[in-house]
Protein backbone atom coordinates (compact mmCIF):
# COMPACT_ATOMS: atom_id res chain seq x y z
CA UNK A 1 0.00 0.00 0.00
CA UNK A 2 1.53 3.33 -0.98
CA UNK A 3 0.11 6.85 -0.71
CA UNK A 4 1.07 9.47 -3.31
CA UNK A 5 4.15 11.42 -2.14
CA UNK A 6 3.33 15.18 -1.99
CA UNK A 7 6.51 16.01 -3.97
CA UNK A 8 5.55 13.50 -6.66
CA UNK A 9 2.11 15.11 -6.91
CA UNK A 10 3.65 18.60 -7.00
CA UNK A 11 6.19 17.57 -9.66
CA UNK A 12 3.37 16.34 -11.88
CA UNK A 13 1.49 19.59 -11.32
CA UNK A 14 4.58 21.48 -12.52
CA UNK A 15 4.88 19.23 -15.57
CA UNK A 16 1.16 19.36 -16.37
CA UNK A 17 1.64 22.30 -18.78
CA UNK A 18 3.39 19.97 -21.27
CA UNK A 19 6.43 22.32 -21.40
CA UNK A 20 10.08 21.46 -20.68
CA UNK A 21 11.32 22.09 -17.12
CA UNK A 22 14.93 21.64 -16.10
CA UNK A 23 15.90 19.51 -13.12
CA UNK A 24 17.48 22.37 -11.19
CA UNK A 25 14.44 24.66 -11.31
CA UNK A 26 12.05 21.75 -10.60
CA UNK A 27 14.21 20.86 -7.58
CA UNK A 28 14.26 24.48 -6.39
CA UNK A 29 10.46 24.74 -6.59
CA UNK A 30 10.02 21.49 -4.67
CA UNK A 31 12.82 22.14 -2.19
CA UNK A 32 14.64 18.95 -3.23
CA UNK A 33 17.86 18.12 -5.09
CA UNK A 34 18.16 17.52 -8.84
CA UNK A 35 18.97 13.90 -8.02
CA UNK A 36 15.69 13.58 -6.11
CA UNK A 37 13.81 15.07 -9.10
CA UNK A 38 15.51 12.49 -11.32
CA UNK A 39 14.30 9.71 -8.98
CA UNK A 40 10.67 10.86 -9.39
CA UNK A 41 11.16 11.07 -13.18
CA UNK A 42 12.53 7.53 -13.16
CA UNK A 43 9.54 6.39 -11.13
CA UNK A 44 7.20 7.90 -13.73
CA UNK A 45 9.04 6.11 -16.53
CA UNK A 46 8.94 2.82 -14.62
CA UNK A 47 5.15 3.26 -14.45
CA UNK A 48 5.11 3.48 -18.24
CA UNK A 49 4.56 7.26 -18.42
CA UNK A 50 6.42 8.68 -21.39
CA UNK A 51 8.80 11.50 -20.42
CA UNK A 52 10.74 13.41 -23.08
CA UNK A 53 14.12 14.70 -21.93
CA UNK A 54 16.51 17.03 -23.74
CA UNK A 55 19.91 17.97 -22.39
CA UNK A 56 19.86 21.62 -21.32
CA UNK A 57 16.05 21.88 -21.56
CA UNK A 58 14.96 19.29 -19.01
CA UNK A 59 11.89 17.08 -18.92
CA UNK A 60 8.36 17.21 -20.20
CA UNK A 61 5.46 14.76 -20.19
CA UNK A 62 4.83 13.40 -23.68
CA UNK A 63 1.10 13.45 -22.79
CA UNK A 64 0.30 15.73 -19.84
CA UNK A 65 -1.96 14.22 -17.18
CA UNK A 66 -3.00 14.96 -13.63
CA UNK A 67 -2.92 12.64 -10.67
CA UNK A 68 -5.87 11.57 -8.56
CA UNK A 69 -6.49 13.93 -5.67
CA UNK A 70 -8.83 13.30 -2.71
CA UNK A 71 -9.49 17.03 -2.27
CA UNK A 72 -10.49 17.50 -5.91
CA UNK A 73 -12.80 14.48 -5.71
CA UNK A 74 -14.55 15.57 -2.51
CA UNK A 75 -14.87 19.19 -3.72
CA UNK A 76 -16.96 17.95 -6.63
CA UNK A 77 -19.35 15.83 -4.55
CA UNK A 78 -22.94 17.03 -4.30
CA UNK A 79 -24.68 14.19 -2.38
CA UNK A 80 -25.07 15.06 1.33
CA UNK A 81 -23.60 11.73 2.56
CA UNK A 82 -20.15 12.23 4.10
CA UNK A 83 -17.76 9.80 2.47
CA UNK A 84 -14.06 9.48 3.23
CA UNK A 85 -12.04 9.21 0.03
CA UNK A 86 -8.53 7.75 0.19
CA UNK A 87 -6.11 8.04 -2.73
CA UNK A 88 -3.16 5.70 -3.24
CA UNK A 89 -0.24 5.60 -5.63
CA UNK A 90 -0.48 1.82 -5.70
CA UNK A 91 -2.44 -0.94 -4.02
CA UNK A 92 -2.71 -4.61 -4.75
CA UNK A 93 -6.46 -4.06 -5.21
CA UNK A 94 -8.80 -1.25 -4.14
CA UNK A 95 -11.52 -3.81 -3.27
CA UNK A 96 -9.09 -5.77 -1.17
CA UNK A 97 -7.86 -2.62 0.64
CA UNK A 98 -11.42 -1.81 1.79
CA UNK A 99 -12.13 -5.42 2.68
CA UNK A 100 -9.00 -5.58 4.85
CA UNK A 101 -10.11 -2.51 6.84
CA UNK A 102 -12.49 -4.82 8.69
CA UNK A 103 -15.79 -3.55 10.10
CA UNK A 104 -17.01 -0.61 7.99
CA UNK A 105 -19.21 1.71 10.03
CA UNK A 106 -19.28 4.70 7.66
CA UNK A 107 -19.24 4.58 3.85
CA UNK A 108 -15.70 4.77 2.57
CA UNK A 109 -14.21 5.09 -0.93
CA UNK A 110 -10.75 4.62 -2.32
CA UNK A 111 -8.99 5.05 -5.64
CA UNK A 112 -5.51 4.06 -6.77
CA UNK A 113 -3.27 5.15 -9.63
CA UNK A 114 -2.37 1.52 -10.25
CA UNK A 115 -3.20 -1.92 -8.83
CA UNK A 116 -0.72 -4.75 -8.70
CA UNK A 117 -3.38 -7.46 -8.34
CA UNK A 118 -6.58 -5.89 -9.66
CA UNK A 119 -9.48 -8.28 -9.14
CA UNK A 120 -11.97 -9.11 -11.88
CA UNK A 121 -15.15 -11.20 -11.83
CA UNK A 122 -14.94 -14.99 -11.70
CA UNK A 123 -11.34 -14.88 -10.43
CA UNK A 124 -9.95 -12.91 -13.38
CA UNK A 125 -7.23 -10.24 -13.27
CA UNK A 126 -8.02 -6.58 -13.99
CA UNK A 127 -5.22 -4.82 -15.88
CA UNK A 128 -4.47 -1.48 -14.20
CA UNK A 129 -1.80 0.70 -15.88
CA UNK A 130 -0.64 3.72 -13.85
CA UNK A 131 -2.33 7.11 -14.10
CA UNK A 132 -4.59 6.38 -17.06
CA UNK A 133 -7.84 4.94 -15.74
CA UNK A 134 -10.07 4.90 -12.71
CA UNK A 135 -9.78 2.07 -10.20
CA UNK A 136 -12.43 2.90 -7.66
CA UNK A 137 -13.98 1.01 -4.74
CA UNK A 138 -16.77 2.00 -2.40
CA UNK A 139 -17.53 0.21 0.87
CA UNK A 140 -21.16 0.72 1.85
CA UNK A 141 -22.65 -0.72 5.04
CA UNK A 142 -26.27 -1.97 4.85
CA UNK A 143 -28.61 -2.61 7.74
CA UNK A 144 -29.86 -5.59 5.77
CA UNK A 145 -29.20 -9.28 5.45
CA UNK A 146 -27.10 -10.42 2.46
CA UNK A 147 -30.20 -12.13 1.01
CA UNK A 148 -31.82 -8.68 0.59
CA UNK A 149 -29.07 -7.35 -1.69
CA UNK A 150 -30.13 -9.14 -4.89
CA UNK A 151 -29.60 -6.87 -7.88
CA UNK A 152 -27.00 -4.67 -6.17
CA UNK A 153 -24.32 -5.36 -8.77
CA UNK A 154 -26.72 -4.29 -11.55
CA UNK A 155 -27.41 -1.07 -9.63
CA UNK A 156 -23.66 -0.36 -9.70
CA UNK A 157 -23.76 -0.71 -13.51
CA UNK A 158 -26.74 1.62 -13.82
CA UNK A 159 -25.13 4.24 -11.56
CA UNK A 160 -21.92 4.03 -13.60
CA UNK A 161 -23.78 4.61 -16.86
CA UNK A 162 -25.57 7.61 -15.29
CA UNK A 163 -22.20 9.10 -14.26
CA UNK A 164 -20.65 8.44 -17.68
CA UNK A 165 -23.62 10.09 -19.41
CA UNK A 166 -23.05 13.23 -17.33
CA UNK A 167 -19.52 13.38 -18.80
CA UNK A 168 -20.42 12.33 -22.34
CA UNK A 169 -24.14 12.62 -23.07
CA UNK A 170 -23.78 11.62 -26.74
CA UNK A 171 -21.99 8.29 -26.29
CA UNK A 172 -24.31 5.24 -26.42
CA UNK A 173 -23.21 3.39 -23.27
CA UNK A 174 -24.82 -0.05 -22.95
CA UNK A 175 -25.12 -2.55 -20.11
CA UNK A 176 -24.35 -6.23 -20.52
CA UNK A 177 -25.71 -8.39 -17.71
CA UNK A 178 -24.68 -8.61 -15.00
CA UNK A 179 -22.77 -5.33 -14.98
CA UNK A 180 -20.33 -4.70 -17.82
CA UNK A 181 -20.58 -1.31 -19.48
CA UNK A 182 -19.88 -1.49 -23.21
CA UNK A 183 -19.49 0.96 -26.05
CA UNK A 184 -19.91 -0.38 -29.58
CA UNK A 185 -19.64 -3.93 -28.21
CA UNK A 186 -16.28 -3.31 -26.46
CA UNK A 187 -15.81 -3.32 -22.71
CA UNK A 188 -15.38 0.12 -21.13
CA UNK A 189 -16.11 -0.69 -17.47
CA UNK A 190 -15.81 -3.78 -15.30
CA UNK A 191 -17.59 -4.04 -11.96
CA UNK A 192 -16.93 -6.42 -9.09
CA UNK A 193 -19.29 -6.30 -6.12
CA UNK A 194 -18.22 -8.29 -3.06
CA UNK A 195 -20.51 -8.55 -0.06
CA UNK A 196 -19.37 -9.50 3.41
CA UNK A 197 -21.64 -10.41 6.30
CA UNK A 198 -21.09 -8.64 9.61
CA UNK A 199 -21.57 -10.38 12.95
CA UNK A 200 -24.71 -8.34 13.81
CA UNK A 201 -26.77 -9.62 10.85
CA UNK A 202 -25.94 -6.53 8.76
CA UNK A 203 -23.51 -6.56 5.83
CA UNK A 204 -21.12 -4.40 3.84
CA UNK A 205 -20.91 -4.26 0.06
CA UNK A 206 -17.62 -3.41 -1.59
CA UNK A 207 -18.43 -2.03 -5.00
CA UNK A 208 -15.35 -2.06 -7.23
CA UNK A 209 -15.49 -0.20 -10.54
CA UNK A 210 -12.75 -0.09 -13.16
CA UNK A 211 -13.30 2.48 -15.91
CA UNK A 212 -10.98 2.70 -18.92
CA UNK A 213 -10.60 6.46 -19.05
CA UNK A 214 -7.58 7.94 -20.85
CA UNK A 215 -5.91 4.68 -21.92
CA UNK A 216 -5.02 4.78 -25.62
CA UNK A 217 -5.16 1.79 -27.94
CA UNK A 218 -1.35 2.00 -28.24
CA UNK A 219 -0.77 1.47 -24.53
CA UNK A 220 1.60 -1.45 -23.82
CA UNK A 221 -0.96 -2.68 -21.24
CA UNK A 222 -3.25 -3.47 -24.17
CA UNK A 223 -1.29 -6.68 -24.82
CA UNK A 224 -2.40 -8.01 -21.43
CA UNK A 225 -6.13 -7.44 -22.05
CA UNK A 226 -7.77 -10.51 -23.50
CA UNK A 227 -11.04 -9.01 -24.75
CA UNK A 228 -12.20 -6.16 -26.97
CA UNK A 229 -11.96 -2.96 -24.91
CA UNK A 230 -12.72 0.71 -25.27
CA UNK A 231 -11.80 3.77 -23.21
CA UNK A 232 -13.50 7.15 -22.91
CA UNK A 233 -10.50 8.50 -24.84
CA UNK A 234 -10.82 5.92 -27.64
CA UNK A 235 -14.51 6.69 -28.17
CA UNK A 236 -14.39 10.48 -27.80
CA UNK A 237 -10.83 11.53 -28.66
CA UNK A 238 -10.88 13.66 -25.49
CA UNK A 239 -9.10 13.14 -22.20
CA UNK A 240 -11.33 13.05 -19.14
CA UNK A 241 -10.68 14.50 -15.68
CA UNK A 242 -10.51 11.36 -13.50
CA UNK A 243 -11.12 13.30 -10.28
CA UNK A 244 -14.36 14.71 -11.67
CA UNK A 245 -15.41 11.29 -12.97
CA UNK A 246 -14.73 9.72 -9.55
CA UNK A 247 -16.93 12.35 -7.90
CA UNK A 248 -19.76 11.83 -10.42
CA UNK A 249 -19.51 8.08 -9.88
CA UNK A 250 -19.65 8.37 -6.11
CA UNK A 251 -22.60 10.78 -6.30
CA UNK A 252 -24.56 8.51 -8.65
CA UNK A 253 -23.81 5.48 -6.48
CA UNK A 254 -25.10 7.32 -3.43
CA UNK A 255 -28.31 8.33 -5.22
CA UNK A 256 -28.89 4.77 -6.52
CA UNK A 257 -27.98 3.14 -3.19
CA UNK A 258 -30.51 5.35 -1.36
CA UNK A 259 -33.21 4.18 -3.80
CA UNK A 260 -32.05 0.58 -3.57
CA UNK A 261 -32.23 0.62 0.24
CA UNK A 262 -35.87 1.78 -0.07
CA UNK A 263 -37.15 -0.36 -2.93
CA UNK A 264 -34.65 -3.11 -3.80
CA UNK A 265 -34.01 -3.77 -7.49
CA UNK A 266 -37.68 -3.82 -8.59
CA UNK A 267 -37.70 -0.04 -9.04
CA UNK A 268 -34.78 -0.26 -11.51
CA UNK A 269 -36.02 -2.96 -13.94
CA UNK A 270 -37.39 -0.52 -16.54
CA UNK A 271 -34.20 1.59 -16.41
CA UNK A 272 -32.10 -1.53 -16.86
CA UNK A 273 -34.04 -2.57 -19.94
CA UNK A 274 -33.45 0.84 -21.57
CA UNK A 275 -29.67 0.30 -21.49
CA UNK A 276 -29.64 -3.51 -21.85
CA UNK A 277 -27.69 -4.64 -24.95
CA UNK A 278 -28.70 -8.29 -24.45
CA UNK A 279 -32.46 -7.85 -24.59
CA UNK A 280 -33.86 -10.12 -27.32
CA UNK A 281 -30.42 -11.53 -28.17
CA UNK A 282 -29.47 -15.18 -28.47
CA UNK A 283 -26.72 -15.72 -25.90
CA UNK A 284 -24.76 -18.24 -23.89
CA UNK A 285 -24.24 -17.84 -20.16
CA UNK A 286 -21.29 -19.57 -18.53
CA UNK A 287 -20.78 -19.96 -14.83
CA UNK A 288 -17.75 -22.15 -13.98
CA UNK A 289 -18.70 -25.60 -15.34
CA UNK A 290 -22.35 -24.73 -16.15
CA UNK A 291 -23.58 -23.30 -19.45
CA UNK A 292 -26.98 -22.20 -20.74
CA UNK A 293 -28.17 -20.94 -24.11
CA UNK A 294 -31.28 -19.02 -25.06
CA UNK A 295 -32.93 -15.73 -25.88
CA UNK A 296 -32.78 -12.93 -23.31
CA UNK A 297 -36.18 -11.87 -22.02
CA UNK A 298 -34.79 -9.22 -19.66
CA UNK A 299 -34.18 -9.23 -15.92
CA UNK A 300 -36.57 -9.90 -13.04
CA UNK A 301 -37.13 -7.88 -9.88
CA UNK A 302 -34.15 -9.60 -8.23
CA UNK A 303 -31.82 -8.64 -11.08
CA UNK A 304 -31.61 -12.25 -12.31
CA UNK A 305 -31.29 -12.82 -16.04
CA UNK A 306 -34.44 -14.24 -17.70
CA UNK A 307 -33.53 -16.65 -20.49
CA UNK A 308 -35.93 -18.39 -22.88
CA UNK A 309 -34.16 -21.71 -23.43
CA UNK A 310 -34.30 -23.89 -26.55
CA UNK A 311 -37.01 -26.12 -25.02
CA UNK A 312 -39.29 -23.10 -24.56
CA UNK A 313 -38.84 -22.83 -20.78
CA UNK A 314 -37.89 -19.69 -18.94
CA UNK A 315 -34.77 -20.00 -16.81
CA UNK A 316 -33.57 -17.42 -14.30
CA UNK A 317 -29.82 -17.10 -13.77
CA UNK A 318 -28.14 -15.35 -10.84
CA UNK A 319 -24.48 -15.25 -11.93
CA UNK A 320 -22.33 -15.88 -14.99
CA UNK A 321 -20.61 -14.51 -18.04
CA UNK A 322 -22.73 -13.67 -21.09
CA UNK A 323 -21.79 -13.86 -24.77
CA UNK A 324 -24.00 -12.86 -27.69
CA UNK A 325 -24.28 -15.69 -30.24
CA UNK A 326 -25.82 -13.83 -33.13
CA UNK A 327 -27.16 -10.32 -33.48
CA UNK A 328 -30.94 -10.10 -33.41
CA UNK A 329 -32.44 -6.70 -34.04
CA UNK A 330 -35.94 -7.77 -32.95
CA UNK A 331 -36.92 -7.35 -29.32
CA UNK A 332 -38.75 -10.29 -27.65
CA UNK A 333 -42.53 -10.20 -27.39
C1 LIG B 1 -14.69 -7.56 -14.29
O1 LIG B 1 -14.12 -8.66 -14.31
O2 LIG B 1 -15.26 -7.13 -15.28
C2 LIG B 1 -14.68 -6.74 -13.03
C3 LIG B 1 -13.50 -5.84 -12.95
C4 LIG B 1 -13.50 -4.94 -11.71
C5 LIG B 1 -12.28 -4.07 -11.63
C6 LIG B 1 -12.37 -3.08 -10.52
S1 LIG B 1 -11.09 -1.87 -10.56
C7 LIG B 1 -11.49 -1.32 -8.98
C8 LIG B 1 -11.86 -2.53 -8.15
N1 LIG B 1 -10.69 -3.10 -7.52
C9 LIG B 1 -10.40 -4.31 -7.99
O3 LIG B 1 -9.44 -5.01 -7.63
N2 LIG B 1 -11.28 -4.66 -8.94
C10 LIG B 1 -12.30 -3.65 -9.11
Q: Could you list some keywords that capture this structure?
A:
333 residues; alpha+beta; 7-stranded mixed β-sheet; 5-stranded antiparallel β-sheet; 14 strands; binds biotin
Summarize the structure in words:
With 333 residues, the chain is α+β, with helices and mostly antiparallel strands. The protein is 28% helix and 28% strand. It contains nine helices and 14 strands. The strands form three sheets. It has a seven-stranded mixed β-sheet, with helices on both faces. The protein starts with 5 loop residues before the first helix and ends in a 7-residue tail after the last strand. The structure holds biotin (BTN). The site of biotin has 20 residues, from helix 5, strand 5, strand 8 and strand 9.
How are the elements arranged and paired?
Elements: H1 6-15, H2 23-30, H3 34-46, E1 51-54, E2 58-61, H4 70-75, E3 84-91, H5 94-100, E4 108-115, E5 134-142, H6 152-167, E6 173-176, E7 180-183, E8 186-197, E9 203-211, H7 232-236, H8 242-263, H9 269-275, E10 282-287, E11 290-299, E12 305-309, E13 314-317, E14 321-326
Parallel strand pairs: 3-4
Antiparallel strand pairs: 1-2, 4-5, 5-9, 6-7, 7-8, 8-9, 10-11, 10-14, 11-12, 12-13
Helix pairs in contact: 2-3, 6-8
The structure holds biotin.
Biotin binds next to helix 5, strand 5, strand 8 and strand 9.
Q: Please identify the structural class as seen in this structure.
A: alpha+beta
The poorly predicted ranges are none
> Helical segment tally?
9
**SSE order in H/E notation?**
HHHEEHEHEEHEEEEHHHEEEEE
Q: Helix proportion of residues, in percent?
A: 25-40%
Question: Into which percentage range does the β-strand content fall?
Answer: 25-35%
* Biggest sheet, spatial arrangement of strands: 3-4-5-9-8-7-6
Tell me the number of strands.
Answer: 14
CA(first)-CA(last) distance: 52 Å
- Average of pLDDT: 94
Amino acid sequence: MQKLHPNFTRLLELLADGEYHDGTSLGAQLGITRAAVWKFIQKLMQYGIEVDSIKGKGYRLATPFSLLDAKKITQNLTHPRQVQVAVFEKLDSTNRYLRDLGDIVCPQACVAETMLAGRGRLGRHWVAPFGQNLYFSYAFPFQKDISELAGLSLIAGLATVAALKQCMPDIPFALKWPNDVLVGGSKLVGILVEVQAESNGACTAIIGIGVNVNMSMQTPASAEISQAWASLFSVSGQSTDRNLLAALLLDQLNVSLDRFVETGFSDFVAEWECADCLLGQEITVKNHDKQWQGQVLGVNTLGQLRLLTENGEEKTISAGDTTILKKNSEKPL
